Amino acid sequence: MSEFDLIRTYFAGLGARRTDVVLGVGDDCALLDLGADQWLAVSLDTLVAGVHFLADCDPEALGHKALAVGLSDLAAMGARPAWATLALTLPGADPAWVAAFAHGLGRLAKAHGVALVGGDTTRGPLAITVQVHGLVAPGQAIRRAGARPGDQVWVSGHLGDAGLALRRIQAGAPVSEPLRRRLERPDPRVAIGLRLRGLAHAMIDVSDGLAADLGHILEASGVGASVELAALPLSPDVAEALANGAGWDLPLAAGDDYELCFTAPAAHSGRIEAVALEARCPLTRIGCVTSEPGLRASQPDGALWPIARSGYDHFRDEA
């Protein structure tokens, strides 16, 4: 079973049915009705040594990333970050390591107006769990289910940088500082998510790879999409890797990008381009939503690229 099969089979809909649960399992965040014209967006992520980060990862960078992945989920819902809790499992009490980790987490939290309000600390194999909480007005959250045929497909930033950095680290090859930063210190696109409220029909953060995460939008919305690979936004490093035979799976499926992928009507393209200028981050139109199910990726010569690997899956990939 895949990780998503496990969730759907055993955990979706578990527990009592409550009228204040606007949206439960199955999106970037759950949405809870607080009353007083406020919805609470909640997301939780765990990072495990050797799975999500290298054992010798800089602790300050790890503190940053531990919070950034949750902030990326809030960004995908168009929610404004507010609070976080932390569960930290440590093999030992190393004050220097903890101080650096806390500095990295705290600096990003301050930048996004987030207060750390609780958590748990225990001894064991190194693992970090962060739960984030954000606020969004009723009806303004951007969900995965909402894409419509005719929508344009957009993505923020660049794709494949983190995946390329990891490949080079694992191969013992040199890694440029920009690539390493993209892997270890992703920039959650919170400002873009907030500005896309009222413009985007559907949105998701790209954490497992564009093909997999866009696929979640398509499945939730009951639609398909056509993507032009030549339109994918690539850094010079990734473009060079592709020219040297890396293959389109690098920007499509390597994961850890923490960009936003969203769909929006063509009539909003001008306003979306203005959002890119305001947020100082490129937003690139890469394709369109179709009524025919499935994801199709066209190469520059018009041939379809076989999407053999759609993204990372903790259980299928291990098998």
UniProtKB/TrEMBL annotation:
<dbReference type="Pfam" id="PF00586">
    <property type="entry name" value="AIRS"/>
</dbReference>
<keyword id="KW-0460">Magnesium</keyword>
<comment type="function">
    <text>Catalyzes the ATP-dependent phosphorylation of thiamine-monophosphate (TMP) to form thiamine-pyrophosphate (TPP), the active form of vitamin B1.</text>
</comment>
<keyword id="KW-0479">Metal-binding</keyword>
<feature type="domain" description="PurM-like N-terminal">
    <location>
        <begin position="26"/>
        <end position="136"/>
    </location>
</feature>
<keyword id="KW-0418">Kinase</keyword>
<feature type="binding site">
    <location>
        <position position="208"/>
    </location>
    <ligand>
        <name>Mg(2+) 5</name>
    </ligand>
</feature>
<dbReference type="InterPro" id="IPR006283">
    <property type="entry name" value="ThiL-like"/>
</dbReference>
<feature type="binding site">
    <location>
        <position position="28"/>
    </location>
    <ligand>
        <name>Mg(2+) 3</name>
    </ligand>
</feature>
<feature type="binding site">
    <location>
        <position position="73"/>
    </location>
    <ligand>
        <name>Mg(2+) 2</name>
    </ligand>
</feature>
<dbReference type="InterPro" id="IPR010918">
    <property type="entry name" value="PurM-like_C_dom"/>
</dbReference>
<feature type="binding site">
    <location>
        <position position="43"/>
    </location>
    <ligand>
        <name>Mg(2+) 4</name>
    </ligand>
</feature>
<feature type="binding site">
    <location>
        <position position="45"/>
    </location>
    <ligand>
        <name>Mg(2+) 1</name>
    </ligand>
</feature>
<feature type="binding site">
    <location>
        <position position="144"/>
    </location>
    <ligand>
        <name>ATP</name>
    </ligand>
</feature>
<dbReference type="Pfam" id="PF02769">
    <property type="entry name" value="AIRS_C"/>
</dbReference>
<dbReference type="InterPro" id="IPR016188">
    <property type="entry name" value="PurM-like_N"/>
</dbReference>
<comment type="similarity">
    <text>Belongs to the thiamine-monophosphate kinase family.</text>
</comment>
<feature type="binding site">
    <location>
        <position position="73"/>
    </location>
    <ligand>
        <name>Mg(2+) 4</name>
    </ligand>
</feature>
<feature type="domain" description="PurM-like C-terminal">
    <location>
        <begin position="148"/>
        <end position="296"/>
    </location>
</feature>
<keyword id="KW-0784">Thiamine biosynthesis</keyword>
<feature type="binding site">
    <location>
        <position position="256"/>
    </location>
    <ligand>
        <name>substrate</name>
    </ligand>
</feature>
<feature type="binding site">
    <location>
        <position position="312"/>
    </location>
    <ligand>
        <name>substrate</name>
    </ligand>
</feature>
<keyword id="KW-0067">ATP-binding</keyword>
<feature type="binding site">
    <location>
        <begin position="119"/>
        <end position="120"/>
    </location>
    <ligand>
        <name>ATP</name>
    </ligand>
</feature>
<dbReference type="InterPro" id="IPR036921">
    <property type="entry name" value="PurM-like_N_sf"/>
</dbReference>
<feature type="binding site">
    <location>
        <position position="52"/>
    </location>
    <ligand>
        <name>substrate</name>
    </ligand>
</feature>
<keyword id="KW-0808">Transferase</keyword>
<protein>
    <recommendedName>
        <fullName>Thiamine-monophosphate kinase</fullName>
        <ecNumber>2.7.4.16</ecNumber>
    </recommendedName>
</protein>
<dbReference type="GO" id="GO:0009030">
    <property type="term" value="F:thiamine-phosphate kinase activity"/>
</dbReference>
<comment type="pathway">
    <text>Cofactor biosynthesis; thiamine diphosphate biosynthesis; thiamine diphosphate from thiamine phosphate: step 1/1.</text>
</comment>
<keyword id="KW-0547">Nucleotide-binding</keyword>
<feature type="binding site">
    <location>
        <position position="205"/>
    </location>
    <ligand>
        <name>Mg(2+) 3</name>
    </ligand>
</feature>
<feature type="binding site">
    <location>
        <position position="120"/>
    </location>
    <ligand>
        <name>Mg(2+) 1</name>
    </ligand>
</feature>
<dbReference type="InterPro" id="IPR036676">
    <property type="entry name" value="PurM-like_C_sf"/>
</dbReference>
<feature type="binding site">
    <location>
        <position position="73"/>
    </location>
    <ligand>
        <name>Mg(2+) 3</name>
    </ligand>
</feature>
<feature type="binding site">
    <location>
        <position position="45"/>
    </location>
    <ligand>
        <name>Mg(2+) 2</name>
    </ligand>
</feature>
<feature type="binding site">
    <location>
        <position position="207"/>
    </location>
    <ligand>
        <name>ATP</name>
    </ligand>
</feature>
<feature type="binding site">
    <location>
        <position position="28"/>
    </location>
    <ligand>
        <name>Mg(2+) 4</name>
    </ligand>
</feature>
